[in-house]
């Protein structure tokens, strides 16, 4: 079950903690994976690491700065060119934070997070949907966050972007459903990555105390959910938000 | 029939998978040719690509029959 042989997947933010594990898992299921991110050297390291176990010819690197609208618009086409085949799977995983309390939040903090975390995924969905609708097949998986549902002090921008992603996904699911294209969202809880390493220890302890499964998530905890939603077996799941958060929130 | 009309007809046949004989000038994409709303958007995008024209949203809404499409594109091309 859940094999992805012969399918091409694009993973954005593939140099980050969660993204590289998503890329690794899709590749392990047989997919050809295009890794995107801003740092080419890191992407190449990740690709070399994943490809070390074999299947290196099914890995491609396609850097893009998603804060640049034109770069986001062009990424799907360049990924398909690198892979030599149309995308069957899009994983919008790239994201950034600019945390601060709202009363101190600058317009730039707001705009940058909304641009990269919401507008860029929309641009990628729009670009990839054209082909997917025509081919009557496709899987879009957006990586949101639990804070898009619960909110979080200091993250008005990030939470708004992630909540927006959930609403966008539900809308796209309705538009694309008649063509066999599914659009789903995964909402990770607190995962141990560079993004959460910056939190103070006291806050981390408090966080773990609120997680029934008693630990922070690991980057690899998200990838299996992506594999499932990308598979043919998940063909009757669309517009869903899958919460992978150790039980921290059960919306 | 004009070259544009021929090309429009061909695109409609290709995209909607309907018999060429059904694609008459008065045929409505939705009522006669079985298109859904997404099909009509895809058709408009195919016209834009094939004829290198831009069809704005408000104009696209008014293109409901084969003749509508041919007339609009012919007008754009003449301008």
From TrEMBL, chain A:
Q: Which EC number(s) are documented for this chain?
A: 1.1.1.100
Write down a Pfam family by its short name: adh_short_C2
Active-site residues, Swiss-Prot/TrEMBL: 158 (proton acceptor)
What are the Ketoreductase domain coordinates in residue numbering? 7-189
Q: Name one GO molecular function term.
A: NAD binding
According to UniProt, this protein's pathway is: Lipid metabolism; fatty acid biosynthesis
One of this protein's GO BP terms?
fatty acid biosynthetic process
Q: Its catalytic activity?
A: a (3R)-hydroxyacyl-[ACP] + NADP(+) = a 3-oxoacyl-[ACP] + NADPH + H(+)
Which residues bind NADP(+) per the record? 38, 93, 158-162, 191
Is NADP among this UniProt entry's keywords?
Answer: yes
Q: Which Gene3D superfamilies match?
A: NAD(P)-binding Rossmann-like Domain
Q: Which InterPro entries match?
A: 3oxo_ACP_reduc, KR_dom, NAD(P)-bd_dom_sf, Sc_DH/Rdtase_CS, SDR, SDR_fam
Q: Do you know which NCBIfam families this protein is assigned to?
A: 3oxo_ACP_reduc, PRK12826.1-2
Q: What's this chain's function? A: Catalyzes the NADPH-dependent reduction of beta-ketoacyl-ACP substrates to beta-hydroxyacyl-ACP products, the first reductive step in the elongation cycle of fatty acid biosynthesis.
**What is the protein's quaternary organization?**
Homotetramer.
So what family is this one in? Answer: Belongs to the short-chain dehydrogenases/reductases (SDR) family.
Protein name, per record: 3-oxoacyl-[acyl-carrier-protein] reductase
Q: Which organism is it from?
A: Komagataeibacter melaceti
Q: What is the lineage of its organism?
A: Bacteria, Pseudomonadati, Pseudomonadota, Alphaproteobacteria, Acetobacterales
Name of the encoding gene? fabG
UniProtKB/TrEMBL annotation, chain B:
The entry's protein name is Acyl carrier protein
Q: Name one GO molecular function term.
A: acyl carrier activity
Q: What does this protein do?
A: Carrier of the growing fatty acid chain in fatty acid biosynthesis.
The record's annotation in HAMAP family points to: Acyl_carrier (MF_01217)
The entry assigns this protein to a family as follows:
Belongs to the acyl carrier protein (ACP) family.
The PTM entry states: 4'-phosphopantetheine is transferred from CoA to a specific serine of apo-ACP by AcpS. This modification is essential for activity because fatty acids are bound in thioester linkage to the sulfhydryl of the prosthetic group. 4'-phosphopantetheine is transferred from CoA to a specific serine of apo-ACP by acpS.
Q: Which domain of life is it from?
A: Bacteria
A GO BP term here is: Kdo2-lipid A biosynthetic process
Main localization of the protein described in the UniProt heading: cytoplasm
Q: Where found?
A: Cytoplasm
Q: In which pathway does it act?
A: Glycolipid biosynthesis; KDO(2)-lipid A biosynthesis; Lipid metabolism; fatty acid biosynthesis
Q: Does the keyword Nucleotide-binding apply?
A: no
Q: Which InterPro entries match?
A: ACP, ACP-like_sf, PP-bd_ACP, Ppantetheine_attach_site
- Keyword terms, alphabetized: Cytoplasm, Fatty acid biosynthesis, Fatty acid metabolism, Lipid biosynthesis, Lipid metabolism, Phosphopantetheine, Phosphoprotein
Carrier domain residues are: 2-77
Q: Per the UniProt entry, what species is this protein from, by scientific name? A: Acidomonas methanolica NBRC 104435
Gene Ontology CC annotation, any one: membrane
Q: Which residues carry this modification: O-(pantetheine 4'-phosphoryl)serine?
A: 37
């Amino acid at each position: 079950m859940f094999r992805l042989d012969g399918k091409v997947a694009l993973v954005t933010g593939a140099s980050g903690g969660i993204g590289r594990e998503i890329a690794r898992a899709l590749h392990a299921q047989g997919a050809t994976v295009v890794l995107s991110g801003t740092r080419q050297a890191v992407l190449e390291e990740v690709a070399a690491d994943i490809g070390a176990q074999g299947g290196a010819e099914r890995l491609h690197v396609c850097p893009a700065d998603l804060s640049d609208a034109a770069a986001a618009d062009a990424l799907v086409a360049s990924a398909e060119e690198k892979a030599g085949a149309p995308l069957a799977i899009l994983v919008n995983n790239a994201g950034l934070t600019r945390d601060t309390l709202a009363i101190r939040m600058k317009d730039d903090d707001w705009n940058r997070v909304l641009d990269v975390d919401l507008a860029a995924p929309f641009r990628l969905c729009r670009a990839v949907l054209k082909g997917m609708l025509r081919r009557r097949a496709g899987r879009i998986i957006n990586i949101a966050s639990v804070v898009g549902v619960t909110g979080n002090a200091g993250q008005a921008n990030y939470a708004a972007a992630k909540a927006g992603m959930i609403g966008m996904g539900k809308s796209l699911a309705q538009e694309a459903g008649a063509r066999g294209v599914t659009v789903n969202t995964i909402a990770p809880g607190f995962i141990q990555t560079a993004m959460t390493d910056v939190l103070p220890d006291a806050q981390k302890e408090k966080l773990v105390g609120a997680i029934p499964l008693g630990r922070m998530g690991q980057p690899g905890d998200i990838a299996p959910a992506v594999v499932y939603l990308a598979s043919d077996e998940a063909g009757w799941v669309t517009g869903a938000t899958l919460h992978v958060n150790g039980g921290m929130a059960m919306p | 029939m004009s070259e544009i009309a021929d090309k429009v007809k061909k695109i409609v046949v290709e995209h909607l998978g309907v018999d060429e004989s059904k694609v008459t000038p008065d045929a409505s994409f939705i009522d006669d040719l079985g298109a859904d709303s997404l099909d009509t958007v895809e058709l408009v995008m195919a016209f834009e690509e094939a004829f290198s024209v831009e069809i704005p949203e408000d104009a696209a809404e008014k293109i409901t029959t084969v003749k509508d499409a041919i007339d609009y594109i012919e007008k754009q091309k003449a301008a």
